[in-house]
## 1
Amino acid sequence: MNDVTRAVVVARTPDGPPAPEDFEVVEVPIAAAVEDQVVVRVDVLSLDPYLRSLLGGAHLDDPPVAPGQVVPGRSVATVVESRSTEVPVGATVLAETGWRELAVLPAAAVSPVSVPDGVPDSAMLGPLGMPGLTAYAAHVRHLTPGAGETVVVGSATGGVGSVAGHLASLAGARTIGIVGNATKVELARSLGYDEVVVRTAPDWVEALHAASPDRVDCYLHMGDQATLDGVVEHLAVGARVSLCGLIDQSNGAPPTRLRAGALMAARATVHGMVVHDHADLAADHVDRVAALLATRRLTLLEDRYSGLESAGAAFAALMSGRNRGKVVVAVSKESQS
């Protein structure tokens, strides 16, 4: 095995929204595998918004990722060398590899990938992975929409939003997707949203009111301060809000504030979403969402890039809202074919 591998490191800490130039592809050392370790080839890499907080040193209690360090990240990978009796060569696994081509990991740190026939393995990074679990947990524990209620989902065409909208529709709710620009309207409609509002339009608040004349019963927030304010001011009595993502704050905007008066008037319940709190739902989530994928009742929406060198640009697009679905990077040549 080679003693180096290509990886993406932080070239400089982003100031505001990340740019491709904030990342650099370099060669980094890779150690030989020892007992109970495996070497994996990264096939498809997941890019996730929480990484922006890590780059700024403000993600929960996690240490910041400094310039020169490999960017963390989860991937679907293939075991190419094994010093473990539990994980054979050739196995497809899910692992925290970071943005690199090869990784040496403890065998206990990789999980076998199992998806329904006809569903690509990369679904484990999206609908069947952390974004899907986030949507599922928010649906069953925070929002709990009933038939006829109105559910608003921010970032409706992203990795979380594309699953959340489906789940709300299946519960019999009316769904309103919020998107960042007019080019995403038809995409959101293709995902099953009943109405779509473009948050950058000058009359977006009026459009939201027209789409929800009885106000908003459930809101999954993944947007900026202005979007949060506009929806919270239009909540129905007894509304439920799940705060899932603060993308503008991640990019350096001032701390997000809640409009207490509007929440009080609506007698609303507000939940903070940290997906790691809901690991006990993982099996139920995979069972239900895998069945939806297998029967084509849920669309696997991926924004797929090719080659490790594209990861920086892909992440910049994600954090500026230019993505159309779950953002992944096909790293290995086998996954690019």
## 2
Amino acid sequence: MGFFLEVVLGGLMAGVLYSLVALGFVLIFKASGVFNFAQGAMVLFAALAMARLAEWVPHWLGFESLLWANLIAFVLAALIMVALAWVIERLVLRPLINQEGITLLMATLGVSYFLDGFGQSVWGSDIYKIDLGISKDPMLVLENVFEGGILLNREDIVATLMAAALVAVLAVFFQKTATGRALRAVADDHQAAQSIGIPLNRIWVIVWSVAGFVALVAGMVWGGKLGVQFSLAVLALKALPVVILGGLTSVPGAIVGGLIIGLGEKLSEVYLGPLIGGGIEIWFAYMVALLFLLVRPQGLFGERIIDRV
């Protein structure tokens, strides 16, 4: 029983990491109706900025405090992601207002390749680390309940707490603030929102900035766990099945979808992998997404779209 709970908790915590990336997809889709293929590249770019700035800040300011170096690097990286959001809105999105969805989709694909190359040019192409000061040694809990206890990864626990706090803040932002309500209005109908005075350009800058901040948090967590390398952009695409499962328009769906995918991957790999030769983690999430596209394409929490003619 102890081993089973360890596998379950490990899967749920891995799912939280997927959810952090999926949140960026959902936020931009909610506000613009655009599926942002650049979200994985944004995670990589933000992680690179955080990693390199954390290296450079102590030399610039002449101190050795890891906490202050990470804090200053995080603030600077967040400002960079806001500036990046402004540039994307001004140079890419603004000229494409009211264009077909496929046009905007291809634009985000172009942004993705640009960020991959630009990030390498600015920050370098080596493998970098983000030292968050969290011990790599697993934590042993419930020793008195289960024989041998349960091993938990400390980084996964911190990521879970960060994701929970981030979701709570975003929920309040969307439901209780005037800007959040404007974002939902823009998501429902761009032209109607413009007709009542909602500035579409400003809303897009805000939502891309928020998505950039989410990408920074995800990149910081993933980078601290795996190291900052260019495979992070590909790894971030693992969030695609999560948003398909949870629903492209649902913030809670991104969290629930991530937990389901993470748990399903871990359980299937541990218990079914030995029977069929392993490798289930590579394709499990995409098979689940395919089944949902066939049965419930709007996802668990997505809105059903009905066209009347």
